[in-house]
TrEMBL record:
Keywords noted in UniProt: Membrane, Transmembrane, Transmembrane helix
Lineage, top ranks: Bacteria, Pseudomonadati, Pseudomonadota, Alphaproteobacteria, Rhodobacterales
Top-level division of the source organism's lineage: Bacteria
Entries under InterPro entries matching the protein: Citrate_utilization_prot_B, NarG-like_sf
Protein name per Swiss-Prot or TrEMBL: Citrate/tricarballylate utilization protein
NCBIfam families: CitB
Record organism: Sulfitobacter dubius
Keyword Membrane attributed: yes
TM annotation in the entry: 101-119, 139-158, 214-236, 242-262, 283-305, 311-332
Length: 355
């Protein structure tokens, strides 16, 4: 991990610890004020607890032009981003995505779409609906490894993170508190419950919290749609295609709508926000990932609308290319932050238990 980023974060954390004006703003400050000195692991934990709402920056009396020049959101964002790159497996892939995120997303989506189109042209599927374009067995053979690889990669990253922050064995009580915080995005409500001023210093809203929730629940609904369809196919002998009012379609449609709305709102908020308060080198990668996730939802909705029309085969290979790119890039994109944020909240729950 870059020493200069840690040193700057340590300098700012020590000043914040002496001031304590932002004590009730979010989970970061109680955890920060529980320490007298900050190890590299402490700073990594604080960085991953931070949701970058920026309320502390706008309330701080020591920001530039003060000689202290505090910018804690940026300092923690830089450490956080660097930790994700350092913990990623393989590490080189994590660093490459942050430098060339948009190019990598476009190349992988188009490349995988062309491969799916070639597979369609070379082998007749002979099924119904989407399976008339690509067989069920071919989809499983392609997507099963693509689903397992990010799980394996993220598991390695989380193990590295847990060792760095000195995590203890996890109990159910630790998980329940962390899941509750994630479910309602408690740390995005602001210190007084009025929301955060992420995109505008003088305007407190819950917009960013709602956008995060739409993305999270949209993704979970899409995942539930795939899971239910898998159970119906293998356990109930009910292969696709499914009707509009079937469980897979209802879950998938609602999830796709939430993904598109949430990702569109998140991109809009990021473009309006002050880029100097986030990770200095991660803006392009964050926009690329958010755009990819939103495109997965949009292409899925368009695919539903295309039905049995002549547009369906082309839309299917583009959608499958986007989904495959999303899964394979997950450990190296902003998507990984959900796993690290969850781990940080679990570690924070352990800290509360020992206080």
């Amino acid at each position: 991990m870059q020493i200069d980023l840690l040193q700057e974060a340590r300098r700012q954390a020590e000043i914040c610890n002496a001031c304590r004006y932002c004590e009730g703003y979010c989970s970061v400050f109680p955890a920060l004020q529980a320490e007298r000195a900050f190890s590299d692991g402490d700073l990594t934990q604080l960085a991953n607890l931070c949701h970058n709402c920026r309320g502390c920056y706008y309330a701080c009396q020591y920001t530039a032009p003060h000689e202290f020049e505090l910018n804690l959101p940026q300092a923690l964002a830089d450490v956080r981003q660097d930790s994700w790159e350092e913990f990623a497996f393989p590490r080189a892939a994590g660093k490459a995505f942050q430098k060339n995120g948009l190019a990598i997303v476009l190349a992988t989506v188009l490349g995988f779409a062309l491969l799916f189109w070639a597979a369609r042209a070379l082998a007749a599927a002979g099924g119904e609906g989407f399976y008339a374009v690509l067989s069920h067995n071919a989809m499983v053979a392609i997507f099963m490894p693509a689903f397992l690889f990010p799980l394996f990669s993220i598991a390695i990253g989380l193990r590295r993170y847990w060792q760095t922050v000195g995590g203890a064995p996890v109990r159910l009580s630790h998980l329940s508190g962390a899941i509750g915080s994630v479910a309602n995005m408690r740390n995005l409500k602001g210190g007084h419950g009025d929301g955060c001023n992420f995109e505008d210093e003088d305007r407190f809203t819950h917009s960013r919290r709602y956008a995060h929730q739409a993305i999270m629940y949209g993704f979970l609904l899409c995942f539930a749609s795939t899971s239910v369809a898998t159970l119906m196919h293998y356990l109930l002998d009910m292969p696709a295609p499914y009707g509009l009012f079937s469980a897979p379609k209802i879950l998938g449609l609602s999830g796709g709508v939430l993904l598109v709305l949430g990702c569109s709102k998140m991109v809009w908020l990021k473009l309006r926000s002050d880029k100097s308060l986030g990770a200095t080198n991660a803006f392009g990668g964050e926009i690329a990932f958010t755009g990819l996730l939103g495109f997965v939802g949009l292409s899925g909705l368009l695919l539903y609308a295309a039905g049995g029309t002549g547009w369906m085969p082309g839309l299917l290979v583009i959608h499958l290319g986007a989904v495959l790119a999303f899964f394979l890039l997950t450990p190296f994109t902003k998507m990984a932050h959900g796993f690290y944020r969850m781990a940080a909240l679990v570690r924070d729950a352990q800290r509360h238990e020992t206080v």
